Amino acid sequence: MLFQARQFRFEFPRPALVMGIVNVTPDSFSDGGLFIDPAAAVAHGLRLVAQGAEILDVGGESTRPGATSVSESEELKRVIPVIRELASRTKTPVSIDTQKPTIARAALEAGASIVNDIAANRTDEAMWRVVAEMEAGYVCMHMQGEPQTMQTEPHYDDAVSDVAEFFDHRLKWMAACGVPETHIALDPGIGFGKTAEHNLQLLAGLGTLGQFNRPLVLGVSRKSFIGKIVDARPQERLPGSLACACLALPDAQIIRAHDVKETVQAVRVAEAVLKARS
User: Is 256 a catalytic residue?
Assistant: First the structure.
């Protein structure tokens, strides 16, 4: 299974990739404001690479539940200097975490290679046309609703089947827009329009989502459903995040994480145990 993002190629099976999070935002749920300064964000990204991150995911707009959107000009001001500097100082592929096609294009022009799109439930094709034109990698994430409203009584007939149906539809639509299948990874969107029970169902059903033969991206780091299970604040949810990441193997191929050093170690040990079992 191949995942291609511009000049970068990842062949699976291989050890899971850890995608390090670089939030250039004042209001992200876990680390908002820590890296709003571009120099601090770049230093943080380089530190994550040194800790083992194989993708850096840079975002300039919080997507936590209830978050409000920011203007394109503000988002560009936050992310473009960081992406340009990271792309010039590391050989690690940079991902832009955005819902806006104009931001995606500018980020790709600045050196990003992947678009991480929480709004793959979109009804227009502009983002996919940008991805196809720029030969970028694309993370297609499932979300019910939008950040402002997504946690208002989310409902599924069957969470795993509904997300699988969504991916099937989007893969066909993206193909029609010229996005090669090999450039697409799928993210079930843990915490995006889901209750804690829906999240657990999706984590337990990741194997079913492997039917599309595309890499699965898992973003569980410090998510609120962990806090609901063990009554922990965001900064206290690392053990729960690591448990989810390890239990998701080998069904998930890309683990998105705030705590890269710890995640890499946990995932590598889990992979070693799984290999010994086989």
Answer: yes
pTM of the model: 0.93
Look at the chain and count its residues: 278
- What confidence tens digit (pLDDT) does each residue in 200-213 have? 999 999 999 999 99
Calpha distance 35→38 (Å, rounded): 7
C-alpha gyration radius of the chain: 17
CA–CA dist 32, 268 (Å, integer): 28
Partners of 96 in beta bridges: 58, 115
Rounded CA separation 234/224 (Å): 7
> Could you give the CA distance from residue 151 to residue 196 in angstroms, rounded to a whole number?
10
Q: Are 166 and 202 in contact (CB under 8 A)?
A: no
Sign of the alpha-carbon dihedral angle for 16, 20, 21, 24: negative
The SS3 of residue 80 is helix
Annotated active-site residue 223? The verdict is yes
Given the residues 170, 256, 275, 277, select the one marked as catalytic. Answer: 256
Tokens (6 digits) for 114: 């992947």
Stretch (H or E) spanning 41: helix 38-50
Asked if 48 and 260 touch (Cβ cutoff 8 Å), the reply is yes
CA-based nearest residue to 99, from 139, 137, 51: 139
User: In order of start, what are the domains of the chain with their CATH numbers?
Assistant: 16-148+155-277 (3.20.20.20)
Taking only the tens place, the pLDDT of each residue in 40-76 is 999 999 999 999 999 999 999 887 776 677 899 999 9
Tell me which of 100, 105, 222, 223 is the catalytic residue: 223
